[in-house]
Amino acid sequence: DAVARLTSLVKEWGPGYFEEEDMSDNMSASAAVTAVSGSNANQPRIPSSGGWGYALPLLATQQYSTALAYLADAGGGLGLLQAAHVGAAMYAAGMGITDGQDGQRSRPQLILPMLLASYSASLQSADAGAALKYLVLLKGETNFLDDQVQRLLHETRQFELLAGKIDPHGTRSQGALDAFFPRSQVSSLLVSTANMAVRVGKPADAAELLVLSGRFSALFTLMNRELATYLNASSPEDESKRQFWFNAAQKFHAMHLTEGRSYVQTSLSNEGQMELGNTFQLLMNLIVFVDRCRQGNLEDWKNALVLIDGLDLLPRTDGDMTVKVNAFHSLDTCVRQVFHHVVLSTMETLCHLYRALRNGGETATVDQTLHDYRTRARLLVTFSRLLNLPGVGDGDTLLRISQLEKNMM
Questions:
Q1: Cα(187)–Cα(193) distance, rounded to whole angstroms?
Q2: Residue 243: which residues within 8 A CB-CB, separation 6 or more?
Q3: Residue among 71, 157, 158 nearest 115 (CA)
Q4: Rounded to whole angstroms, how far apart are CA atoms 200 and 3?
Q5: What is the DSSP letter of 387?
Q6: In b/e form, how buried is each residue of 58-89, taking b as 16+ CB within 10 angstroms?
Q7: What is the pLDDT of residues 292-349, one digit of tens each?
Q8: Cα separation of 190 and 323, whole Å?
């Protein structure tokens, strides 16, 4: 067969025979992305033909995959642009982008997805919408397309451009993705990208993506976890994260949970996840409580005690003990894991109030209040033992709580 013999000769001669420069050191097809990004300082020089000197004989001998890979490698950024467009045109025309004489339309294997992903990546910093248009040229390659769209969202963070924004009624506006995918699939892509963001340590991006997706149960799970994690933050880095998540939670509340906006509650109710919303409200209140405890003045300690009493988490009489222990076990896991901080902060607050009141003089009313503080401190020690708090938190928690109670004798 003449084509087969010619193919053998073209491969034997190699690019050096057809190009004016010796291209024997050209990089592999898998390095196209690196070439476009400019991260490889030792890239080979681009031949005067831009890679077409060898690509044309390869195309003439039906070595389509090798031809496109060579053009993208040898031709630099322009070569990648040309290879991607030629490959896309061949695919649209039903040509098999393989090496050989099989003219039937076939799965484009690796070369065309690689070319389009590489070219899309070269565009995304300047125009994420244009980058998306190249990715969707291969809508038949479902797994590839989903992965690349998630990468585009994750790397560009152009969430509003690609996925729209939420209006006051809880409806997501149209984004670039909606021109190519049904709304349900866009939501799924946003959730998958959010999961990716969590895995790589970008929970803030994950939260924004989950809002857009309308999957509020997943969003509350994420926010609740972060709010609980940094409830008792002490290092500057953790304090910064704590403030970020508290501000983000306040902003979400103001935008989506104010009076007259019920779409979040409706979504949680439909999913049977209303408890996630209750946990969110509880954690927001606990952060305020801990902040008041830390202020170090009498008025804030009083306000902290009023707040924790209003949350009704801790026993105030012996008759409360069993009810409060059972209530503790019904709390979300993320709250139970940091509950020792709540108990310890409450004990510290009682101790501060006790000392301040005792130093202010003795009257019948004062004596009764001091007695009430001591009673509550005793109940907290018993409560802590029953909950086995050292088992879910700091091993010194019970010891510290007990010592504070003794200081109130």
A1: 10
A2: none
A3: 71
A4: 50
A5: H
A6: bbebbbbbbbbbbbbbbbbbebbbbbbebbbe
A7: 999 888 999 999 999 999 999 999 999 999 999 999 999 999 999 999 999 999 999 9
A8: 42
CA atoms within 13 A on the CB side of 148: 25
CB-based burial, 23-53: b 16+ in 10 Å, e otherwise: beebbebebbbebbeeeeeebbebbebbbbb
Instruction: Write out the two tokens for 238.
Output: 């953790």
Structure-token pair, residue 30: 């898998």
Question: Could you tell me the two tokens for 40?
Answer: 């490889």
Q: What CA–CA distance (Å, rounded) separates 206 from 60?
A: 49
DSSP one-letter string for 259-271:
TT--HHHHHHHHT
Percentage of the chain exceeding pLDDT 90: 52
Listing DSSP states for 165-227 in one string gives -B-TTSPBPP-GGGGTS-HHHHHHHHHHHHHHHHHTT-HHHHHHHHHHHT-HHHHHHHHHHHH
In this prediction, residues 49-53 reach a mean pLDDT of 87
Q: Which of 21, 79, 90 is nearest to 51 (CA)?
A: 79
Cβ atoms within 10 A of the Cβ of 203, count? 21
Burial 299-331 (b: 16+ CB within 10 A, else e): ebbebbbebbeeeebbbeeeeeeeebeeebeeb
- The SS3 assignment for 157 reads coil
- CA distances to 7, 113, 131, 180 from 108, rounded to whole Å, are 21, 7, 20, 21
Alpha carbon distances (Å) from 360 to 11, 351, 357, 374: 97, 14, 5, 17
- Is pLDDT at 42 greater than 50 in this prediction? yes
* Alpha-carbon torsion (18, 24, 25, 26), positive or negative: positive
* DSSP label of 43: P
Q: What is the pLDDT of residue 101?
A: 54
